């Protein structure tokens, strides 16, 4: 046996012994605490594996059995608490954000260390670097500030319409390009090519790596961090070789667009309305430590793109799927748009006069939320909630929506609990049904308007507390105009088979950290020759 092999075996053995001791210590402490209810675990390993056929049924039964808004399990000595209602989520993560804003290090080894995605502000620990990035976000992405991005949002949406007219069968490709163009300009001031843009390709490769690495529980190294020291040539160390590939893509996604923005600034061609311009010309040079602040800005801009791209893409995919499956709502929305816009395409002057479009978007975000469970919050102090002890270091998950997923481990399963915040039948009637009209009411003048009495799904969709998504205002506006523009110009219908019969897609999703509709086809055709002309005319405004 070689020295390296012996060292690896020792590392793994020590890690397993440490986990057993940690669980034993946690168990002894648990007997002195009143934890939230949950199933008993196995000795030493806790709830390392739970019944999952499917997982959400088991977890839903637990919520009913224990009659509690919060449920607890233990995995190798780590407390995991899941909040199953908006009230519990808000009580802990909003009202006590000072002690519930940290992120875990355990369970993230593959993603943050081996793949180098630790620069993501969304995954970063609660520290000074994170707080400095957050300040930059608040300054540049508050509701009034994001209005300066409306011109690029309009250009990207209109380009999407032209691409749908040209090649409707490639709608997924067009959606990704439109969102990528908008984000790269808003963040970096980079105006990309209409197709085959090298910077978008670089960013796309990075995103693919990020999404793959973020499937928590897929890699044993997340459960046994000591495995990160295993060399890539060692048998069974395929995760090291994969991490090396993903890290190269993620590094490029971080540095390539940032360096392009710096080059534009040096040449005097960086647009005034992008975030990079303000941060590179003001925040960085005026910092006490400019080199450190440049690192903060680089990470903040990279996160702005990475966090915004796949989330908006998934939401738009769900929009197309919903319009195929529920055409009556599509037709009603189009009638409202026709009356409000009177022969033109919608723009932001219509933002407050198209409540039906807002209702459709809100229902999209509620029906199949992009991130079913928000990212883990970690408590930094001991706490008590509803009579239950929540020790320092507890992982807290807000259950935005339960999902059905065959599990690989309880660590993975912990991300997929029951009792939906956005599918709560006490809040939303027939929650599994797509119905945007649940958000509407008729006012005293007989006109439709958004009903303020109905819970806005944005209260849960974008996270909680100090970790709430800072780009939520830009994301919502971009989605709103894309939805309004597509509805104004096109009809979205079921695809046809070789015999001319309708093909109804299954409303099924591919599950991971984020969810995406499984591939489906549809027919996208201009609503009229006038609509086709309107789409063609948008090229003149570029």
Describe the overall structure.
With 542 residues, this protein is α+β, with helices and mostly antiparallel strands. It has two domains: 1-98 and 376-421, no CATH class; 99-369 and 422-541, Cytochrome p450 (Orthogonal Bundle). Helices cover 48% and strands 9% of the residues. The protein has 18 helices and 13 strands. It has helices at 3-30, 55-66, 86-94, 109-114, 128-141, 150-166, 171-188, 198-213, 220-223, 238-266, 275-283, 290-325, 327-341, 355-367, 410-413, 458-461, 472-489, 529-537; strands spanning 70-75, 78-83, 377-378, 383-385, 388-390, 395-398, 440-442, 448-450, 490-496, 502-503, 509-510, 516-517, 522-526. It has a four-stranded mixed beta sheet with strand order 1-2-6-3. A three-stranded antiparallel beta sheet has the order 10-9-13. β1 and β2 form a beta hairpin. α10 (238-266) crosses α12 (290-325). The radius of gyration is 24 Å and the shape is globular.
Strand arrangement within the widest β-sheet reads 1-2-6-3
The CATH class of the largest domain is identified as Mainly Alpha
Give the CATH superfamily of the largest domain: Cytochrome P450
Query: Mind describing the biggest β-sheet?
Result: 4 strands, mixed
Shape: globular
Give the gist of this structure:
The protein has 542 residues and is of the alpha+beta class. 48% of the residues lie in helices and 9% in strands. A four-stranded mixed sheet has the order 1-2-6-3. A three-stranded antiparallel sheet has the order 10-9-13. It has a two-stranded antiparallel ribbon with strand order 4-5.
């Amino acid at each position: 046996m070689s020295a390296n092999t012996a060292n690896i075996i020792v590392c793994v053995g020590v890690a397993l012994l440490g986990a057993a001791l940690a669980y034993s210590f946690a168990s002894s402490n648990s007997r002195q605490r009143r934890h939230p209810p949950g199933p008993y675990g196995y000795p030493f390993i806790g709830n390392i594996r739970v019944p999952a056929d499917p997982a959400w049924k088991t977890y839903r039964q637990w919520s009913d059995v224990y009659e509690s808004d919060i449920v607890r399990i233990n995995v190798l000595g780590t407390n995991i608490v899941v909040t199953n209602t908006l009230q519990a989520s808000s009580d802990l993560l909003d009202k006590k954000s000072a002690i519930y804003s940290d992120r875990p290090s355990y369970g993230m080894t593959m993603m943050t260390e081996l793949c180098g995605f630790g620069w993501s502000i969304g995954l970063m620990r609660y520290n000074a670097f994170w707080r400095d990035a957050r300040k930059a976000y608040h300054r540049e992405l508050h509701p009034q500030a994001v209005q300066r991005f409306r011109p690029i949002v309009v250009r990207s949406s209109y380009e999407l319409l032209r691409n749908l007219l040209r090649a409707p069968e490639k709608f997924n490709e067009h959606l990704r390009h439109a969102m990528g163009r908008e984000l790269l300009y808003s963040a970096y001031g980079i105006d990309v090519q209409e197709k085959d843009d090298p910077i978008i390709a670089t960013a796309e490769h990075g995103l693919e790596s990020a999404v793959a690495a973020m499937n928590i529980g897929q890699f044993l190294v997340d459960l046994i961090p000591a495995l990160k020291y295993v060399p890539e040539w060692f048998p069974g160390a395929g995760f090291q070789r994969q991490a090396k590939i993903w890290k190269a893509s993620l590094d490029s996604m971080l540095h390539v667009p940032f360096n392009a923005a710096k080059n534009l600034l040096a040449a005097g061609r960086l647009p005034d309305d992008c975030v990079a311009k303000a941060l590179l010309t003001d925040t960085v040079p005026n910092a006490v430590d400019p080199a450190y602040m440049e690192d903060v800005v680089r990470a903040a801009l990279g996160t702005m793109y990475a966090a915004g791209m796949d989330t908006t893409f998934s939401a738009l995919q769900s929009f197309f799927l919903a319009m195929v499956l529920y055409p009556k709502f599509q037709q009603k929305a189009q009638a409202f748009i026709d009356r409000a816009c009177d022969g033109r395409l919608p723009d932001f002057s219509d933002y407050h006069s198209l409540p039906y479009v807002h209702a459709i978007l809100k229902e999209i975000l509620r029906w199949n939320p992009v991130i079913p469970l928000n990212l883990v919050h970690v408590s930094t102090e001991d706490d008590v909630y509803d009579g239950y002890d929540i020790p320092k270091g507890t992982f807290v998950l807000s259950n935005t929506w339960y999902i059905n997923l065959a599990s690989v481990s309880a660590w993975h399963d912990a991300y997929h609990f029951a009792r939906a915040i956005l599918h709560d039948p006490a809040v939303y009637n027939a929650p599994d049904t797509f119905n945007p009209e649940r958000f509407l009411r008729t006012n005293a003048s007989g006109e439709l308007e958004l009903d303020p009495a109905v819970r806005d799904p944005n209260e849960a969709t974008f996270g909680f507390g100090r970790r709430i998504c800072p780009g939520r205002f830009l994301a919502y506006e971009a989605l709103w105009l894309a939805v309004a523009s597509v509805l104004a110009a096109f009809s979205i219908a079921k695809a046809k088979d070789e015999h001319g019969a309708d093909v109804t897609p299954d409303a099924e999703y591919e599950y991971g950290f984020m969810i995406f509709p499984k591939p489906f086809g549809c027919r996208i055709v201009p609503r009229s020759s006038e609509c086709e002309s309107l789409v063609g005319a948008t090229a003149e405004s570029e």
